[in-house]
Amino acid sequence: MGIFGNTFGLPHLIIILVIILLLFGAPKLPGLARSVGQSMKIFRNEVKSDPKKDDETTDSATASETPATKKNEL
Questions:
Q1: Residues 46/52/54/58 CA torsion (nearest 10 deg)
Q2: CA angle at 38 for the pair 37 and 44, rounded to the nearest 5°
Q3: What tens digit of pLDDT does each residue of 51-69 get?
Q4: Chain-centre distance for alpha carbon 37
Q5: Distances in whole angstroms, Cα of residue 50 to Cα of each of 45, 47, 56, 63
Q6: In angstroms, what CA-CA distances link 34 with 37, 38, 39, 45, 69?
Q7: In sequence order, which residues have a C-beta less than 8 Å from that of residue 20 and are 6 or more positions away?
Q8: Contacts for 44-48 with beta carbons within 8 Å, 24 or more apart?
Q9: CA–CA dist 21, 65 (Å, integer)
Q10: What is the reported pTM?
Q11: CB 43 within 8 A of CB 35
């Protein structure tokens, strides 16, 4: 049993790959694969990033701008 159960098999994958080859053409496929790979790498890095780390950076940025410092700037 595959990812999509018994409804999606090897013949379907071959047909999809042939359609992609016809749509994009052979010379454009390496560039397309490269851009998809880079997008997946960026997505994985963003998913793996620590959400607490992101919260600390935004908290420190807002904490440094207290009303007193804003008042002094005016």
A1: 160
A2: 90
A3: 666 555 555 555 555 555 5
A4: 10
A5: 10, 8, 10, 20
A6: 5, 6, 9, 17, 48
A7: 29
A8: none
A9: 55
A10: 0.43
A11: no
User: Please, what is the end-to-end C-alpha distance for the chain in angstroms?
Assistant: 68
Q: Measured between alpha carbons, how far is 24 from 18 in angstroms, rounded to an integer? A: 10
Instruction: Please state, in angstroms and rounded to a whole number, the distance separating the CA atoms of residues 1 and 12.
Output: 15
> CA distances (Å), 11 to each of 24, 59, 66, 67, in order?
20, 53, 63, 65
pLDDT tens readout for residues 1-46: 556 566 778 888 889 988 988 888 888 888 888 999 999 999 999 9
Instruction: Please compute Rg for the chain using Cα positions.
Output: 24
